[in-house]
UniProtKB/TrEMBL annotation, chain A:
Homology family: Belongs to the binding-protein-dependent transport system permease family. LivHM subfamily.
Superkingdom, natural source: Bacteria
GO molecular function: transmembrane transporter activity
Name this protein carries in UniProt: Branched-chain amino acid ABC transporter permease
Organism name: Noviherbaspirillum galbum
From TrEMBL, chain B:
Organism: Noviherbaspirillum galbum
Descriptive protein name: Branched-chain amino acid ABC transporter permease
CDD domains in the cross-refs: TM_PBP1_LivM_like (cd06581)
Keywords attached to this entry: Cell membrane, Membrane, Transmembrane, Transmembrane helix
Topology of the protein relative to the lipid bilayer: Multi-pass membrane protein
Record-annotated membrane-spanning stretches: 42-68, 75-94, 114-134, 163-183, 203-227, 239-261
Location in the cell: Cell membrane
Highest classification ranks of the organism: Bacteria, Pseudomonadati, Pseudomonadota, Betaproteobacteria, Burkholderiales
PANTHER family for the chain: HIGH-AFFINITY BRANCHED-CHAIN AMINO ACID TRANSPORT SYSTEM PERMEASE (PTHR30482), HIGH-AFFINITY BRANCHED-CHAIN AMINO ACID TRANSPORT SYSTEM PERMEASE PROTEIN LIVM (PTHR30482:SF20)
Automatic annotation (TrEMBL), chain C:
Gene Ontology cellular component annotations, sorted alphabetically: plasma membrane
Short name of any one Pfam family annotated for the protein: ABC_tran
Keywords, comma-separated and alphabetical: ATP-binding, Cell membrane, Membrane, Nucleotide-binding, Transport
Gene3D superfamilies: P-loop containing nucleotide triphosphate hydrolases (3.40.50.300)
GO terms assigned for molecular function: ATP binding; ATP hydrolysis activity
PROSITE patterns: ABC_TRANSPORTER_2
Residue ranges annotated for the ABC transporter domain, each copy included: 7-249
Keyword Ribonucleoprotein listed: no
Record's protein name: ATP-binding cassette domain-containing protein
InterPro entries per UniProt: AAA+_ATPase (IPR003593), ABC_AA/LPS_Transport (IPR051120), ABC_transporter-like_ATP-bd (IPR003439), BCA_ABC_TP_C (IPR032823), P-loop_NTPase (IPR027417)
UniProtKB/TrEMBL annotation, chain D:
Pfam name, any one: ABC_tran
UniProt lineage: Bacteria, Pseudomonadati, Pseudomonadota, Betaproteobacteria, Burkholderiales
The protein's name: ABC transporter ATP-binding protein
Record-linked SUPFAM superfamilies: P-loop containing nucleoside triphosphate hydrolases
Record-annotated ABC transporter domain positions: 2-233
InterPro entries from the UniProt entry: AAA+_ATPase, ABC_transporter-like_ATP-bd, ABC_transporter-like_CS, BCAA_Transport_ATP-bd_LivF, P-loop_NTPase
Length: 287, 275, 270, 234, 358
């Protein structure tokens, strides 16, 4: 029973990781940039979700606004930040991205206060009992289901469709991709939009699960997300999902049984390093 | 400031010279700091703790380097980041290292305040000189080549892993040295002083200064470590401005301060020539 | 009396996943000879050179240099035993000059260990060798420029100069003439033959059959990972081998006639 | 078909090609030849939209395309097989062809792919390999095949025979003749001057970014000064 | 003017507490100035942001000492930064009054250090006493992995051992954790009578709400880190019935507390919390000392503080030899979305050490 519960909790956590990491994967896959500022969009999503829901009473509207605004902000980040830096070595964009993240964190703090926001009446908090007694919040179940669905869809799009091939082509050689009729900007805007909207989506979920959004809520997902894209072998949607879930479960058990030895971050990264020593190409990479 | 410069130069050796991005460099600062702090408390003179700190940091650096050899370049940043988290995670749980509470009341170095400052500056200057020398030596050339294309260097008969390890060893040992100074300077260290944020900060110093450029990194680290104090007057907006500047710097001068200076110099020369 | 072979390739097999790129290939390279390695696209020639230098690991079989097995040795150690590879796809270091690229190879003696490298600063000797090698392959004029902006033909020669600067016992050249026009190719082939005459053993991969026939003393032919025309090594005979003709030369007679014509010249030179 | 008027192009401040005027007749093969660094590749990449146009104009079908994005040019029917092949290394052979076919309706993919595979059977055997793992010659075939997948009206091929074995070179040249017969316009850069002269209708010779000779291929062949001085024949 | 130094986290993770602390300290200074200041001079609070980071705190403290030449200083910050700053003030012989940083080593730094709140171990022991007072035995111990949590846990375990309580399971979590699924599942299966969980409101809010959501009904005991209205806002209905051990009693009859609560509300428009009250207190204590020395710092101020006794919003305070205060610990309970008095814990177990432990 405890085993199942820990697993289930790991999967919930993993789903959130997956949603955040996906945007990172898309960006990394596309531009080979470690997009730390992505986590700011996650935070943005959380804030918008809470504020819109509190103002309008509709969670659905909260989700919609969070995703759309985060998506558009993602495109803006690409255009303003990364596009001009594509010719530079990757750590230039990394540092710029970190700078952007810090600035955003501070902006949230200055605009909305350091202590964060909460829902007036947090929705989806009812308990549901599944599979003979496993207790879930409604929100937890919905997180898992929607993550699986979205990622399944994206995975299909990425590998099975012309759009997917076009995206991948821009990775290998953007200039040549253009010479084969691919509009670079469109492809990249699309990726940033989708990835960022998912981060916003995740932000709303986290706000629902914790009933708290704070300026600093993005920092953990930002580096865990990076660990996950490495575990997943970089670039593949399916690998990212699996890696995120595995990491969620590892953390879930780890904090309980190894908590005395290592903290949660250390457990996650110890796992990452162990995996990389055995499989340098990541857990789920095509070799 | 001198400590930041030393620390940044040590990372620059690994990342700037040899092309191995490290996001966990603060761990080595931590190793040096803890060792120096504990040994000082055990009664060793401060000066004697420094080489020991370097040795230990360098040794562990080589171990981490060995592990990093296995992962592909893309993954290195994240692997080293993991090492950083692991370090903090381990230190947190060790009571003999003070656990969460850290180590405080580190005995005095015996140097006066200015004495200590001069000592740090001298060490930083020596490190800068060492970096310049390495850059000029054949080791620097090989580092440079490894940074650009390992495979090609192999075909030229270069033992790439050994050079990478050498870079790690020197870089982490110097970080250990910086750590000893750091512990002495603050008289108090705790696990949080060596976390991810520190690693990222020092990487920003290197990049903002101008990765690979010794002078650039020196200036970058000096300026950036003083920045928060200068910014006190804008109070609430301090970090916002800091983050914004970091971004703008990369956006408009990706080569860092080094590139900016070169550009300005060129421009004035051109203008001067015309006049 | 036949000298002991400098390089022995013994039953080497290379597999990439399910694909067998080289299938049990054996051949010898004699000291002082210029051996041509030819065969259709995708036959496994490049893979062969990479297996010899250790860039790819042979799944089976062994390679011996002067009687000493190279099995399991990493690339750099093989290079230090006297091999040098000039690759098909050129990869210069882009942010140092053409000359420095070559000098880096010339400095091999100083870079065997990091410590040794740390102790050395001067580079006059290496730069001298570098210039010499650049002149040898005919791109001395480009010495000070950055490789990033060089046209392909210059890069290919830079690649070769770099291999030469290692002063190898056995030089492995992968399509050095590609991207050169006939006159330039002819001149560079002549240089290769000269280098060979001065004592360096060479294995040459080339599709420019004309030049191959002119300068190579023996040919090894690969097709689909296997060695064909095993019994013959005289270039002219090889060209007449029906298996070779079918796999490699095809129906068009232009290439063939050119090849034969050059072969005649080669014979006359000799 | 393609009309370059006083074209200059280059990189940053550096001008690689000066005042090149060249006109391609529809349904012909034009050879662009010259020594290393003459500016051949630069010219092709400029027409494709990747090298900065510094002066003059590029007209295709009578329209000025000098300002269009590369992606627009391929839609108008200009395809390129560039120097260095520039394949999508992390994509399979088939997906490389698929990218080539993106400007065409999806339904045509199968047919076009089979045409390319018919031309280069070797690619058929390596369909699911990553392009980056192909041998040099295989890569060259794929680069040409990928360009053909766009169903271009004009194709530019840089260093056609580079790395190809004699048999495949022959094949390529007969394919070019076939394409020309089907009405395609071809701009060919090639070091193997013999081959160019034997197949081209028109020839343009570049030297250090300037045109040194332009005219019918037949005339070039018979101009012994020219062949000796610039074409590297002997 | 007489300058008082104040280091406080205005940015970074602790910025919310920093804001409260700043308001509290400002109020104390404003009130003193309204009454004519000290020795006819106005008081000036010199404020620097230390981001609650040890690294930032050192230059901040140095600046306060060397550039601003403050006569005394107040810490409105967390333990880490306060510890780092302490050494500098001690060396410069500038009295340093610490508001709410509870790490034991701070007062050990030297004789110029003063602390107005109960140190961590003491609060932990108070927690154990509360468990006993509630009549519970089997405790689930949840510890925040930082110096604050560790110090509390140490005290709690010490007290629990003395009182014969049983610790059913001990778990740790990190400062950045907000999702406690695994921990909650495990606690549920341990089925303790009561849960003693250290944390700040931003970790405790989610923790408490997740515990309740999973059907854990055992009472929860928190500490001063919970002491903020934000806690109730985040945890929502789940916060009802949660106990906290703290230093501010909102239902106190003491005039000092009542006026402070009212004044603070008037000045800022929001309700005071423990951090605000402690910072107000620390600042007031320092000002009281200055009054006695007529604005002089150094040795004189140190002696004035050591010998004085102070009536403050968090109780009547006097410093022992180690410059710690002995005072009762307030137990507040959440009722109808606000903190109310539950009980007061006192007794010999709450006596802070008066000299450095061996
Ligand atoms: N890393 C690799 N992974 C998978 N297949 C590979 C790899 N390298 C080469 N191959 C395959 O092995 C075969 C032999 O390749 P190789 O490069 O040796 O051919 P080659 O004889 O040099 O041909 P070319 O004359 O075209 O250069 C080819 O079919 C190629 O696709
Ligand atoms: N990216 C670049 N930046 C600056 N200059 C360049 C760049 N690429 C090429 N050049 C320069 O442009 C000139 C023309 O080069 P180009 O590649 O067009 O020659 P090419 O005729 O194709 O030669 P090859 O036959 O060797 O391929 C050369 O002088 C070269 O150095
Ligand atoms: C806000 C407070 C609970 C801070 C805590 N006392 C600390 O020392 O860090
Ligand atoms: Mg090859
Ligand atoms: Mg070219």
């Amino acid at each position: 029973m405890l085993f199942l519960e820990l697993t289930a909790q790991g999967l919930v956590q993993g789903s959130i990781y997956a949603l955040v990491a996906l945007g990172l994967t898309l960006v990394y896959g596309l531009l080979r940039i470690l997009h730390v500022a992505h986590a700011a969009l996650f935070t943005l999503g959380g804030y918008l979700g809470v504020m819109v829901t509190n103002a309008s009473g509709s969670l659905a509207l909260g989700f919609a606004v969070a995703m759309i605004v985060a998506g558009i902000a993602g495109i803006a980040m690409y255009r303003l930040c990364y596009e001009p830096m594509l010719k530079q070595p990757p750590f230039v964009a990394l540092i710029a991205s970190i700078g952007l993240y810090i600035a955003f964190e501070e902006l949230f703090r200055i605009l909305f206060g350091a202590s964060g926001l909460s829902y007036q009446a947090p929705p989806l908090q009812q308990q549901v009992s599944l599979f003979g007694g496993l207790q879930f919040k409604q929100a937890e179940i919905l997180v898992m289901v929607s993550t699986a669905a979205i990622i399944g869809l994206l995975g299909y799009l990425q590998t099975r469709t012309r759009v997917g091939v076009a995206c991948q082509a821009t990775v290998s050689d953007p200039q040549m991709a253009e010479s084969f009729g691919i509009r670079l900007r469109q492809v990249r805007d699309l990726n940033f939009f989708v990835g960022s909207a998912l981060a916003g989506f995740a932000g709303v979920w986290v706000a629902l699960l914790n009933n708290l959004v704070e300026p600093t809520m993005g920092s953990v997902p930002s580096y865990k997300g990076l660990a996950i894209i490495v575990l997943g072998g970089m670039g593949s949607v399916r690998g990212t999902l699996l890696a995120a879930l595995v990491l969620g479960v590892v953390e879930s058990f780890g904090t309980i049984y190894l908590g005395k030895l290592l903290d949660r971050n250390a457990i996650a990264f110890a796992f990452l390093i162990a995996v990389l020593m055995l499989r340098p190409q990541g857990l789920f990479a095509r070799s | 400031m001198a400590i930041s410069v030393l620390f940044a130069l040590s990372l620059n050796l690994i990342t700037g010279f040899c092309g191995q991005i490290s996001l966990g460099h603060a761990a080595f600062l931590g190793i040096g700091a803890y060792l120096s702090a504990l040994l000082s408390k055990a009664g060793l003179p401060f000066i004697a703790t420094l080489p020991l700190g370097m040795l230990l940091a360098g040794l562990i650096g080589v171990v981490v380097g060995l592990a990093s050899l296995r992962v592909r370049a893309d993954f290195l940043a994240i692997t080293t980041m993991g090492v950083g988290f692991l370090f903090v995670g381990i230190v947190r749980q060790q009571d003999w290292l003070g656990g969460e509470l850290g180590v405080s009341a580190i005995p005095d170095s015996g140097l006066s305040k200015t004495g200590f400052m001069v000592f740090s500056v001298v060490l930083a200057a020596a490190t800068a000189a060492l970096c310049l020398y390495i850059r000029k030596s054949w080791m620097g050339r090989v580092f440079n080549g490894v940074a650009e294309d390992e495979d090609t260097m192999r075909v030229l008969g270069i033992d790439v892993p050994r050079y990478k390890l050498a870079a790690f060893a020197i870089g982490t040992a110097l970080a250990g040295l910086a750590g000893g100074l750091y512990a002495q300077h603050l008289k108090f260290i705790g696990p949080d002083s060596f976390g991810f944020v520190e690693s990222v900060t020092v990487l920003s110093m290197v990049v903002v200064g101008g990765i690979g450029s010794v002078a650039g990194v020196t200036i970058g680290a000096a300026v950036m470590s003083a920045l928060p104090a200068w910014f006190q007057f804008i109070g609430d907006y301090k970090l916002l401005v800091y983050g914004g500047l970091l971004f703008l710097m990369m956006r408009f001068s990706p080569g860092g301060m080094a590139a900016m200076v070169t550009r300005v110099v060129q421009r004035t020369q051109r203008n001067g020539g015309g006049a | 009396m036949k000298a002991a072979p400098l390089l022995q390739v013994d039953q080497v097999t290379v597999r990439f996943g399910g694909l067998t790129a080289i299938d049990k290939v054996s051949f010898d390279v004699l000291p002082g000879e210029l051996l041509g390695l030819i065969g259709p696209n995708g036959a496994g020639k490049t893979t062969m050179l990479r297996a010899i230098t250790g860039v790819v690991r042979a799944t089976e079989g062994d390679v011996r240099l002067a009687g000493e097995s190279l099995k399991g040795l990493p690339i750099h150690q093989r290079i230090r035993k006297g091999l040098a590879l000039s690759q098909q796809l050129v990869k210069p270091l882009r942010d140092i000059s053409v000359l420095d690229n070559v000098a880096l190879a010339a400095g091999a003696a100083r870079t065997a260990s990091p410590l040794q490298a740390l102790m050395h600063v001067s580079q006059e000797e290496e730069a001298r060798i570098g210039r010499e090698m650049l002149a040898l392959v005919g791109i001395a004029a480009h010495a000070a420029q950055k490789p990033g902006i060089q046209p392909l033909g210059v890069l290919k020669r830079l690649e070769m100069a770099r291999a030469l600067a290692l002063r190898p016992k056995l030089l492995l050249l992968d399509e050095p003439l590609a991207g050169l026009n006939s006159k330039e190719a002819h001149a560079l082939a002549e240089t290769i033959a000269d280098i060979n005459r001065q004592g360096t053993t060479i294995v040459l991969i080339e599709h420019n059959l004309g030049e191959v026939m002119r300068i190579c003393q023996r040919l090894v032919v690969l097709d689909n990972g296997r060695r064909i025309a095993k019994d013959v090594s005289d270039p002219r005979q090889v060209m007449n081998d029906p298996a070779v003709r079918a796999a490699y030369l095809g129906g068009d007679t232009l290439a063939e006639s050119q090849a034969m014509q050059h072969a005649e010249q080669g014979v006359r030179h000799a | 078909m393609l009309e370059l008027q006083q074209l200059s192009c280059g990189y940053g401040a550096f001008e690689a090609v000066h005042d090149l005027s060249l006109s391609l007749r529809p349904g012909t093969i034009t050879g662009l030849i010259g020594a290393n660094g003459a500016g051949k590749s630069s010219t092709l990449m400029c027409v494709a939209g990747h090298v900065g146009l510094k002066g003059g104009s590029i007209r295709f079908d009578g329209q000025d395309i000098g300002m269009l994005a590369p992606e627009q040019r391929v839609r108008r029917g200009i395809a390129i097989s560039p120097e260095g092949r520039r394949l999508f290394k992390d994509l399979s052979v088939e997906d490389n062809l698929r990218v080539g076919g993106l400007v065409q309706p999806a339904a045509r993919f199968r047919q076009d792919r089979d045409y390319v595979l018919g031309l280069f059977p070797r690619l058929g055997e390596r369909l699911h390999s990553l392009a980056g793992n192909l041998s040099g010659g295989e890569q060259q075939m794929l680069a040409i095949g990928r360009a053909l997948m766009t169903r271009p009206r004009m194709i530019m091929i840089d260093e056609l025979s580079l790395g190809l074995m004699p048999k495949v070179i022959d094949l390529c040249y007969s394919a070019l003749k076939q394409l020309r017969a089907d009405g395609m316009t071809i701009l060919l850069v090639e070091q193997n001057t013999d081959r160019v002269l034997s197949v081209a209708d028109d020839v343009c010779v570049l030297e250090s970014g300037r045109t040194v000779w332009q005219g019918r291929a037949d005339d070039a062949r018979n101009n012994s000064d020219l062949t000796a001085a610039y074409l590297g024949l002997h | 003017d007489i300058k008082i130094g104040f280091n406080v986290p205005l940015t970074g993770f602790a910025a919310a507490d920093g804001k409260s602390a700043l308001e509290g300290a400002k109020l104390a200074v404003a009130q003193a100035n309204a009454k004519g200041g000290v020795a006819g001079q106005k008081l000036e609070l010199v404020i620097y942001d230390d981001q609650a980071s040890a690294k930032e705190a050192v230059p901040v403290a140095t600046k306060l000492v060397e550039k601003d030449k403050v006569v005394g200083a107040v810490s409105g910050s967390y333990s880490g930064s306060t510890r780092a700053a302490a050494g500098i003030f001690q060396q410069a012989k500038v009295p340093y009054v610490v508001a709410y940083a509870i790490h034991p080593e701070i007062t050990l730094t030297g004789d110029y250090m003063f602390r107005v709140s109960a140190m961590g171990e003491v609060q932990g022991r108070a927690g154990a006493m509360l468990v006993q007072n509630l009549g519970k035995k089997k405790v689930g111990l949840v510890t925040l992995k930082n110096d604050f949590g560790q110090a509390l846990a140490a005290g709690f375990k010490e007290g629990a051992a003395k009182l014969g309580l049983q610790v059913a399971g001990e778990y740790e979590y990190g400062m950045q954790d907000r999702q406690f699924g695994a921990l909650v599942s495990k606690l549920k299966s341990d089925n303790p009578d009561v849960i003693y969980a250290s944390g700040y409101y931003f970790t405790a809010g989610p923790l408490v709400s997740q515990l309740r959501a999973a059907g854990v009904t055992a009472p929860i005991i928190g500490q001063e880190g919970y002491d903020s209205d934000k806690f109730m806002e985040i945890a929502g209905p789940a916060s009802e019935g949660v106990y906290v051990t703290t230093s501010l009693d909102r239902d106190s009859d003491s005039a000092a507390t009542k006026t402070f609560l009212a004044d603070y509300h008037k000045a800022t428009g929001s309700n005071a919390d423990m951090v605000a009250a402690s910072s107000y207190t620390a600042t007031s204590v320092l000002i009281e000392g200055l009054k006695k020395t007529n604005g002089k710092g150094g040795d004189e101020l140190k002696n004035a503080l050591t010998s004085g006794s102070f009536d403050t919003p968090i109780g009547k305070l006097a410093f022992n030899d180690l410059h710690e205060v002995k005072k009762d610990v307030q137990v507040q309970v959440v009722k109808d979305k606000s903190f109310h008095r539950h009980s007061v814990i006192s007794g010999p177990m709450l006596t802070p050490p008066s000299k450095p432990a061996k």
